[in-house]
Amino acid sequence: MNTPTPTPTGRRRDHDGETYVELVRTFHAPIEDVWAAVTESDRLARWIGTWTGDPAEGRVRFQMTFEGDEMPGEAFQIDECVPPHLLRITTSMPYDGEKPEHWLLRIDLSETDGVTTLTFAQNVPDPAMAEGVGPGWDYYLDRMVAAETGADPAAIDFDDYHPAFADHYRKAFG
C-alpha cells in the first residue's frame, strides 16, 4: 500500500491569550472511539506513546515511544477533562532542569452524523517553535489516522514532514 504524500495542515490560532499550532483530523468513527484513541494508554501506544499513573489524581507520566530510547517521560497535568469532548493538559519537560518548559495541549472532539472531528492544539510561546512543533504534530496525527483506519503507522516517515513542513509553519507564525 502506498502512503499519500503528506501536506502541512496546521494553522495559527489564539486561545485564552496563548498562541497555538492547531491541527484537525476527521474520523468515520463514533466520538467515544476517537476519545479512547487519545486517552487510553494501549490505544496511544499504537501511534505516539503510553502513560502510567492514575488520571483521577490529575496527573500521569507520559512516555513518547517513537522518539528514541533516551527520551525521558513527561509529567502531564490534567487541567480539564470532559469525556468525550475535551481534554486540557499542561506538560512539563524533565530535561529542562529546575525550570522546566511547560506546554499547553488542547484536544477537542465533536461528532456529526458518525464523523468525529478532532482538533488538536499546542501552545507556542515563541513563534519560532512552530516550525518544529507543527511538523511533529502533523506526523503524529497522521500516525493516529493510520492506526485508527487499519493502516500501518510505521509507514508514516518523519523525514517526509521535517524539515519539509518547516517553511509552512515559519510563514504562518512569522
Question: What characteristics describe this protein?
Answer:
alpha+beta; eight-stranded antiparallel sheet; 4 helices; 8 strands
Provide a descriptive summary of the structure in words.
It is a single chain. The protein is an alpha+beta fold. 23% of the residues lie in helices and 35% in strands. It is built from four helices and eight strands, in the order E-E-H-H-E-E-E-E-E-E-H-H. The chain has helices spanning 31-39, 41-44, 130-148, 166-173, and strands spanning 11-15, 18-27, 49-52, 59-64, 74-82, 86-92, 102-112, 115-123. An eight-stranded antiparallel sheet has the order 1-2-8-7-6-5-4-3. A hairpin with a 6-residue loop joins strand 3 (49-52) and strand 4 (59-64). Helix 3 (130-148) packs across helix 4 (166-173).
Question: Which whole number gives the mean pLDDT?
Answer: 92
Q: Which value, in Å, is the CA radius of gyration?
A: 16 Å
Specify the helix fraction band.
10-25%
Helix and strand composition category: alpha+beta
Task: Strand order, main sheet: write it out.
Answer: 1-2-8-7-6-5-4-3
- Biggest sheet layout: 8 strands, antiparallel
Give start-end ranges of low-pLDDT stretches: none
Tally of separate helices: 4
Work out the oligomeric state of the chains in this entry. Answer: single chain
Domain Activator of Hsp90 ATPase homologue 1/2-like C-terminal: 29-146
Family: Belongs to the AHA1 family.
Pfam families: AHSA1 (PF08327)
Protein name: Activator of Hsp90 ATPase homologue 1/2-like C-terminal domain-containing protein
